Amino acid sequence: MVALVPPFYTSNILLLAGKICAGEYDHTPLQYYSESIRQIIFECLTVDPSNRPDIVGVAKLCTEQLMLYTDRSCATIQSLKKRLRQSELYYLKQQSQSQSQQQSV
Questions:
Q1: Cα(15)–Cα(8) distance, rounded to whole angstroms?
Q2: 82, 73, 42: which is closest to 58 by C-alpha?
Q3: How confident is the model at residue 65 (pLDDT cuts 50, 70, 90)?
Q4: Reported confidence tier of residue 75, pLDDT bands at 50, 70, 90
Q5: Among 6, 36, 92, 101, which is 20 to 30 Å from 62 by CA?
Q6: Mean confidence (pLDDT) of the chain
């Protein structure tokens, strides 16, 4: 799904079954992805089902990247909140000065 093409493809159903059982697929589309994504794909396409990760195993493979993304997102949100608050304070200060100037006239 990541590569937008099926990993196993042939027009002959018997050849398709053979490719799946042998774990023969084209690695070329995966060259454009990060090493961590490729590793997850390789592990999910492992021929021996006992060595293939279940959903918990896949989640474990993704956890570090997800945590880094979450940390960066939180830092970005905090930074944006700080900038918004500074802008609000600046706006309120300007508005207050404008009103005091109008009252003094």
A1: 10
A2: 42
A3: confident
A4: very high
A5: 6
A6: 90
CB 71 within 8 A of CB 63: no
Contacts of 44 (CB under 8 A, 6+ apart): 52, 53, 58
Q: Summarize the confidence of residues 34-38 as an average pLDDT.
A: 88
Q: Which domain holds residue 86?
A: 63-105
Statement to judge: residues 2 and 44 lie in one domain? yes
Q: Quickly tell me which residue has 């774990």 as its tokens.
A: 23
The residue type of 101 is Q
Handedness of CA 18, 28, 4, 36 (dihedral sign): positive
Does residue 57 sit within a domain? Answer: no
Residue in the structure block whose two tokens are 């989640």: 59
* Number of domains within the chain: 2
Identify the band that residue 33 occupies on the pLDDT scale cut at 50, 70 and 90.
confident
Q: Which amino acid is at 53?
A: P
Do 3 and 43 lie in one domain? The reply is: yes
The dihedral through the CA atoms of 47, 51, 54, 60 has a sign that is negative
